[in-house]
């Protein structure tokens, strides 16, 4: 699998280049498939490519066969060259240095910082990773879903165990996957000299030369000393033990849940109801951020740093106690970095001596509710949805509340009632039939009634408002965590705006759909769960939307439909939602602008930021993309955005509104 930026490149290029008279962009999706060049999905991709290239009727099968043979011959020749180089180094007692990295980096003399030439100059033999024979000397590492990442780490595993052979990792600034892979590389190479050379293409040789000199000095010393301690590390050892809720409950561990928005408390309440000790970590603060930064490089996504810091801050209080914990950190199957978080958490916890006291509970995005009692997932989802809706109601009522604090007071009362309800319901009969009845019957474990009562209370404290409405979208953790997003909602409300936000439950609705689109047929049990969740969503939304006169709920299919003009649905991840949700709501006249909140260097957020320019051109939607790294946001960013929202709103409301900011009729997106 390739990272989101590479996968989205055709959409971004197309939006820029495929203008009148511009070049035709051939952006066939090439799906390699597990069996490689002969796989059914790759063969089918080649057929589609031939058609997209206009080679209709041509014998593309023969071309495919010839290309596959040529590729295999080339790969064989590379491996043979690598073996000869290794044998030569052994015979001549010369350090063999495997140059790790992606082909477009290590074979490009700018992006590889001239490492191969400098190594030769200093008496070593550089061997590109694609020539280094790994074979079965390394485990397959399925937990690393990036193709190049797997190849690099498997080679590192093999290099660590081969005397006289060393490695240099050529990476590029702001490479998302490398912000984690470099940690895993260091973990695997521990006990043997290794180097990392990172470039943005601007650096001269001097710095690289010095670093390679130092590295080779250590390598020669290591070789002379007969090589370091025997290797014993594997990535598998830190990639999660597949613990489920059953084992955690049986061992009496306390589940610590990172504060990913208000639903985190709902999960804690549900777990307590089924007899699992659970605790939601508090809102992160500067101390938590500092602790997280102490054990990360600053290149990882902010949620990684903040969740790690908040965990370590909490564990500090347990140094002298015997308590055991399970840290809830779901995983994912790519293409983004989230699926690598739990591995880095594990490495840091082991390094800090928490290895035997803190376990990782990491359900995958293919089934977040794996290992939970049958009806439990329906209750948890109800908790997520209801928590989001109460918060949405607070943001709706607060900007025009009849008295200071009135809306928050209503919110706190019903939030507490919801958490108590979830804990109570979790202790009841949570079989599939009861869950189906709760969804089909519409009671939703009592949450529907709770939301209807809350809505009436919110309506009573909400005064008339004509404030412009902005939608907060972007990376799920950051957009739902006030500390990480610079308290965006407060800042925007202070500037006379009203906020809506893309709810956490949107991601669960999306993964259900994405699993079908990008991962093929799903079992009936999952389809039923998806239908049940859909019913719960609609029922709970209706319960609160009625009294508050909210517009129809923006569904994920609607967001994907609107976003599909800018980001292809085959690209798994938030980008299509981050763009599509606001485009849909802008077309429906629900919002006046959008704030795209994402961690610094967040890949889907960058894709969305790039496409928002074209959304503005084509549809007139005003957006601001704010990259976040935990440091406060410059107030001017909020000032200028709020000013522009108010200004454009005023212009739209002025009878002789000019084009700028005017809401055009729904355009037919160009190009796609
Ligand atoms: S979506 Fe952004 S923050 Fe999340 S894993 Fe991907 S790059 Fe990191």
Describe the structure.
With 672 residues, the protein is α/β, with parallel strands linked by helices. It has three domains: 142 residues, Rossmann fold, CATH 3.40.50; 123 residues, 3-Layer(aba) Sandwich (Rossmann fold); 279 residues, no CATH class. The chain has 25 helices and twelve strands. The strands form three sheets. Strands 2-1-3-4 form a four-stranded parallel sheet, sandwiched between helices. Strands 6-5-7-8 form a four-stranded parallel sheet, sandwiched between helices. Strands 10-9-11-12 form a four-stranded parallel sheet, sandwiched between helices. Helix 10 links the parallel strand 5 and strand 6. Helix 23 packs parallel to helix 24. The two termini are 24 Å apart. The C terminus is likely disordered. Iron/sulfur cluster (SF4) binds next to helix 24. Iron/sulfur cluster binds next to helix 24.
